[in-house]
Description:
This protein is 43% helix and 23% strand. It is an alpha+beta fold.
Amino acid sequence: xxxxxxxxxxxxxxxxxxxxxxxxxxxxxxxxxxxxxxxxxxxxxxxxxxxxxxxxxxxxxxxxxxxxxxxxxxxxxxxxxxxxxxxxxxxxxxxxxxxxxxxxxxxxxxxxxxxxxxxxxxxxxxxxxxxxxxxxxxxxxxxxxxxxxxxxxxxxxxxxxxxxxx
Length: 166
């Protein structure tokens, strides 16, 4: 899950709790719009060839967006739902342990090695080093300036509205 921390978040939350409902709704709408843009970059670009190529689409389909509001706060989470076991190792990188590969539907494994067809009852896999291929954090990094700028613009609009109101 990605999180964006803002300095003065507590003071801002207190001020937002005192704002009229229409202004809180405008801020929630902007957060929702920014979260949707981020979600589309993750699923429509990063997991569709820009960072990782889609093989089955399972990782892309596991990405969820959830907006939440309450107690003077509004936010959105974009995350892999846990249904794809390789989501974290793709995002952060890591190592897989050495392990034995056995056939599960036949008596032997069949694969190509150096252009030759090989048959084997088992294979000792030495493990792998998987490099980080950030699809979530990189999207947030790519859009962080725009997110901060857009939220600041909403805050300025709110401040102007408050100054103009009786």
